[in-house]
Amino acid sequence: MKNLVVILTVGLLALVVAAGCGPAAPAPPVQQPAPGVARPEAARAEWEVKWDRTLAGAKQEGELLAYFNAPSEARVAIPAAFNAKFGVRMDVISGSAAELNTRLNSEYRAGIHQADVLMVGSTAIWASVKPNDFLQKIGPLLILPEVNNPQSWLGGKLPFFDKDGTAVAYFSQVIPPLVYNTTLVKDGAITSYSDLLKPEWKGKIVMFDPSISGAAVFNATVLSANIGFEQAKEYLGTLLRQQEVVVTRDQRQMMEWVSHGKYAVAMWPQTPAVIEFLKVGAPLSAVRVKEGIGVSASNGGLAVPTRPPHSNAATVFVNWFLSREGQALVVKAMGAPSTRLDVAPDGVDSMFIVKPGEKLSIQDEEFAIMQNKWAPEWQKVIASGGR
Fold first, then answer.
1. pLDDT tens string 165-205
2. Cα 304 to Cα 313: distance, rounded to the nearest angstrom
3. Does residue 2 form part of some domain?
4. Neighbour count for residue 292 (Cβ, 10 Å)
5. What's the domain range around 64?
6. CA dihedral 215, 118, 347, 179 (to 10 degrees)
């Protein structure tokens, strides 16, 4: 429990400021071999030899298949960039995290091995695929020094979601607990969850259902970590009873209602829907509640199945994808901040970026275990209407 909530230290704050305001000081440069200049293996670093051999193997394989839950822009931009750089064709099968995880699990049980990489939310990977032992550890696949350097990453450690290192959380994104219509809510009018209990917000709040997977159960867990589970449960019940809160499972409709002014506040909205409406100019802003906020990889999770048919191509992709170059492209294409400290969150709305001094709950395996433990209780509260 004590690991769920962290206060950033001064040293880490400097790194986060750099990540939010511009490029951080890069990790110590690594001497790369000059383009087109061949050197004897004995004169090269071990990683260079391994990289060249792996890249040669990838070119021979010639292709890569990714199961990828991402916006259409990313599903086009990332394969195109990978193909252009390495001459390896990257194909994508898209779908929701649940669909892709179910597909991989079903295929592996049937002895079918066609996915080279799995790219869905890290929590979904951990909960749905890892228990079946269908994933390999990522650490042994990391070759490039800039990827293996802990100082390149938030918190000074490689961004593994789980203690076994089978899933990488390549995004570190604030999941806004409250998003409001700026034409209906004045800046600073809501600073805490307790403010939502004021009379002026009765009938003006729409909540995403915390009894199912998503940002709502995540933020309910963050609230519980910060104020205590029983207090969080009591608060949620009071809010539902007293304020006539509407609970929905339709993330797009939820943000449409708030954007058009039917409701003033979206509580625990799904991040993709928030981003979608921000992009078209909806009058939205977010509250950084004083109880504390949560940081998640959202859909930024990466894993490699135990038997990828194009193992060299998968290794090359993982290293490139987690490099500064790869992550800069991912941030642009997917609109979320990278866990890499040397990649600026260009184009990412400030509501999704960690700010100095914030009280943070960081989603990892320990957090996910706690979330699963508490989830059934949220189901009871929602089913009873808070009674």
1. 999 999 999 999 999 999 999 999 999 999 999 999 999 99
2. 11
3. no
4. 20
5. 44-172+298-340
6. -10
